[in-house]
Every structure is written in C-alpha cells, then in structure tokens.
Specification:
The chain is mainly alpha-helical and about 180 residues long. Helix content is about 60%, strand content about 0%. It has a single domain (about 10-170), classed as Heme oxygenase-like (Heme Oxygenase, Chain A, Up-down Bundle), CATH 1.20.910.10. The chain is globular.
Length: about 180
Amino acid sequence: MSVERALPLTRCELTVDAYRRILGAFLGFYGPLEAGLVRLATCSAELNLIGREKISWLRQDLCALGASESDLAAIPTCPDLPRVDAVDRAFGCMYVLEGATLGGQIIARNLEQHLAMGAQSCAFFRAYGAATGTMWRTFVAHLNRQEPPFDGAVAAAVETFECLERWLVARGAPTWQK
C-alpha cells in the first residue's frame, strides 16, 4: 500500500469527517517530526526551516472544521518517526515533506470542488500557494549543494514514507475511503 492509495483525498466520495480524520493524523505525524527538525535546525546553519513549517496550517484547517484547542491537544502523536539526528537525514525527510506540497495543490483543488472547502479549511494542502513551485526549487537547489554521500538522506526519505504509511494505517486508513 502507498500513502496515496491509503487516503481518499482526490476521490469524489471523500467526506468531511474523513478529511478531518486525515488532517488529525497528519497533525499527529508532522507535529513531533517538525519539532525534531526544528531542534536540529537550531544547531545547523545548513538546515533552514523558516517558512516551511506546516503545523499551523494543519491546526488552522482543523479549527475551521470545528476542532477546539482541547480537541487538538487530544490528537495522538506518532511514536514511530523517521530518525532526523543529522543534517543529511533531515534533508531526506524534508524532501518527502516538501515534495508533498506539490501534490497538495491538486488535493486542495479537489477539496474545494468536491467538499466545497474554502481556503481556510485546506491551508495545509495549499501550503505555499502560488509560491509552491519556487519553494520547491529553492529547497532542491539547497539540497543539491550538499556534499555526498547521500546515503543518509535517501535512507531518511524512505523511512519517512514508511513511518507515515504505518502511522496512517494505525490511525484508520484506508478505511477512510468508505
């Protein structure tokens, strides 16, 4: 199973309730993962996360869908995260997270069309909006300036996909399709 197949985000049968559960699962994954990336970034000038944090967008979307602060605080966090204890591994993880913003543009259009979601309910998938392409190219250019070997980055990218998939399944995917 892949993350894309596990989530009904581009299907017309997606419900608001399923969308809410998916956002909650993403918050439970991105929250602790971004915290780890931020800790590493404070120790390394190579790793710049400014403007790339996604937690506030997830929180905004969930609140727009009726979640309270206590609801957000009760969302379980993923205990099985990719290891981001070195800059090369952080870049591999970020490659996955930043790459997801490209597909998020398509998902946001689907949400707006099929669920009549406004921008306030799909900020996470809109992410950088019109600047998404520029943000991606900037990230890739920075990534390309890193010195080999790239084994840690590749391993962390694979691990990020695997951890996210396990987390989504643990939270109920792919039954969200129904």
